[in-house]
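User: Predict structure, ligand guanosine-5'-monophosphate.
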Amino acid sequence: MMRKKTRGELIVLSGPSGVGKSTVISELLSSRRDIHFSVSFTTREPRVGEENGVNYNFVSREEFERMIRDGELLEYAEYVGNYYGTSLKIIEDYLQQGIDVLLDIEVQGAAKVREKCPEAVLIFIIPPSLEELSRRLRNRNTDSIDVIAQRLEKSRAECRESVKYDYLVVNDNVVSAAQEILAILEAERCRVKKRIHLADSIIGAQE
Ligand code: 5GP
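Assistant: Predicted complex:
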């Protein structure tokens, strides 16, 4: 993994359920292998094909509530009846080593991250339309009709929160959505506040 001397960048990605975040993330990580994807903790049941420690760390409600009590989470939220949260220690270790960290979290969690880490980059992914989102959720075949309806309703509310983010990406096509995110990260890297040392070395140099 590539290491930098400066602190890593904290990147937050949110978007309604079924928008295709995981696919966009896989595409993004295939070209930016130096980014660490934060594996969240959740109390939800694993879906078919999901692996413990890879997609999520699957824990009991008791264990999750212990983590909340012991202050082990940077943020957490309850979403459609389950807890989801990010381990503070794990991501802090990576950031301190100069490794960029990517969080795939919902809007309440992202708001918490904004509060606690104002330097984080917040990106919101939206679907091309609500009809398309509904189609994708049904095609996923993983949730019951009731859960899909709940998730769709929640999606509309979530999209309203997108104004609080720094960037908006439409996932019409996975490759171009991932490319837009790469461009955002590249632009973030060029911010004056992150490169001021480069200008300083010229300003302060003797002729
Ligand atoms: P799913 O059950 O579809 O995997 O995830 C449901 C929602 O929980 C998604 O919007 C996902 O981004 C969010 N989520 C996943 N991990 C976390 C986390 O650690 N914290 C928060 N706040 N949300 C999370």
